[in-house]
């Protein structure tokens, strides 16, 4: 299947530079100030050139790059920008996967005839992102996610690279093995074995790699040959209800925030039309341009706005906001039609089943994928053990 | 989308064989364990109508008294460990 990978490297830095053009070409590091025991969320290429890496302690980043400019993160702002990016990409294909902040995959199978080829399609994607969000991306188009990503990551910003079908191994051959999605220890061992480029890995038979690295060895060998069986996971377009309230002057007290929550939840209650919500997200724009957010997954789908307020109150009471609040927003998602519950005479057993169902639904809402499975018989008569039983997602 | 994940999937394993081709040691979690006893040997030839399967299974007891089932894939000549009951 033809996949396009659209990449906006260092999206948080790009957003900050958009807000303040004076930051351009300065070694920006995002993640609070170095006196805090936190990690680098993102850094500019100028800081990266001096050894700063995402995930390293801020103190270490300062030691490596003395002139680094440390900025507090604005996660909700980055998410909003990336959401606009995804919406723009949905204009090209209905199947868009949100892989990570700044990285999206699209199913573009059969779309090229609508453009002057795949290169033109990729260029139009980049252009539309620039128009909609002012973000500059690179893009790669190939068979499978890994090759598309490799094509995007090796392209310059604003450029498109297409890899024709059956030319994957040829394209990947000269690329460094460090591009493979493997654990740092595995990459180090590959280097020790003298396997520096993907062509080195692809030239080996799979057996020895499997013997050394187990299942991961086989996967890396397949990827080096350009075979990526991982399917695209398109994001689900779900209904999202949002209400915002701007304070006349920045609010400091929890009481003021609770009053605001009450007003927002009453408005949301009318928009729910009697339906229930599974998730709530509290978002705040803070004084000084910072932002804060707290997602909450309800144990059961909630219809009652007073119950939601009770939960919001307990979240706010247990949180110390780093600055006064200028704007508060509440998002409700996971909207369901569940309104009431039918009671039963055999309360105990039915209650347990309902509880299990609710827990499974809550886990799915929290993690976005099914986590509970049940065993089913497939070919119980087979002499091959792997044919007899399988796990299937548990549907309550 | 519902997906089926087969249980008891075979996993590649490093096996040392003797002159007769029977396993003499198995490497588990990076540790070489000698075979103390071969309890059973059986062959499965199946699924000739799709990708043919030809396996020679060994039920072993290792030097630390651990029972383990391995098979030699006679098509690819690789060794695999698999739960078999």
Describe the secondary-structure layout.
The complex is a heterodimer of chains A (396) and B (85).
Chain A: E1 2-7, H1 11-19, E2 28-30, E3 42-43, H2 45-48, H3 58-64, E4 69-71, H4 75-89, E5 96-100, E6 103-107, H5 118-133, E7 138-143, H6 145-153, E8 160-162, H7 168-172, H8 184-192, H9 198-202, H10 206-213, H11 215-224, E9 241-251, H12 254-272, E10 277-286, E11 291-302, H13 305-317, E12 325-333, H14 347-367, E13 373-377, H15 385-388, E14 389-393
Parallel strand pairs in A: 2-4, 7-8
Antiparallel strand pairs in A: 1-6, 1-7, 2-3, 5-6, 9-12, 10-11, 10-12, 13-14
Chain B: E1 4-6, E2 11-12, E3 14-17, E4 23-28, E5 31-46, E6 53-62, E7 67-73, E8 79-81
Antiparallel strand pairs in B: 2-8, 3-4, 4-5, 5-6, 6-7, 7-8
Task: For this entry, give a set of tags.
heterodimer; A: 396 residues; DNA polymerase, domain 1; 14 strands; B: 85 residues; mainly beta; 0% helix
Describe this structure in words.
- The complex is a heterodimer of chains A (396) and B (85).
- Helices cover 39% and strands 21% of the residues of chain A.
- Chain A folds into four domains: 1-164, MutS, DNA mismatch repair protein, domain I (3-Layer(aba) Sandwich), CATH 3.40.1170.60; 170-224, 5' to 3' exonuclease, C-terminal subdomain (DNA polymerase, domain 1, Orthogonal Bundle); 241-333, Dna Ligase, domain 1 (2-Layer Sandwich); 347-393, no CATH class.
- Chain A is built from 15 helices and 14 strands.
- Chain A has helices spanning 11-19, 45-48, 58-64, 75-89, 118-133, 145-153, 168-172, 184-192, 198-202, 206-213, 215-224, 254-272, 305-317, 347-367, 385-388; strands at 2-7, 28-30, 42-43, 69-71, 96-100, 103-107, 138-143, 160-162, 241-251, 277-286, 291-302, 325-333, 373-377, 389-393.
- The model of chain A has no long low-confidence stretch (mean pLDDT 88).
- Chain A is α+β, with helices and mostly antiparallel strands and 396 residues long.
- Chain B is mainly β.
- Chain B has one domain (11-81).
- Chain B is built from no helices and eight strands.
- Chain B has strands at residues 4-6, 11-12, 14-17, 23-28, 31-46, 53-62, 67-73, 79-81.
- Chain B has a seven-stranded antiparallel β-sheet with strand order 2-8-7-6-5-4-3, with no helix packed on it.
- The radius of gyration of chain B is 14 Å and the shape is globular.
- The N and C termini of chain B lie far apart (31 Å).
- The mean pLDDT of chain B is 89.
- Classes of the chains: A alpha+beta (396), B mainly beta (85).
- The A-B interface holds A 207, 210-211, 214-215, 218, 373, 375-376, 378, 382-393, 395 and B 2-12, 14, 44, 46-47, 53, 76, 78, 82-85.
- Strand 14 (389-393) of chain A pairs antiparallel with strand 1 of chain B, so a sheet runs across the interface.
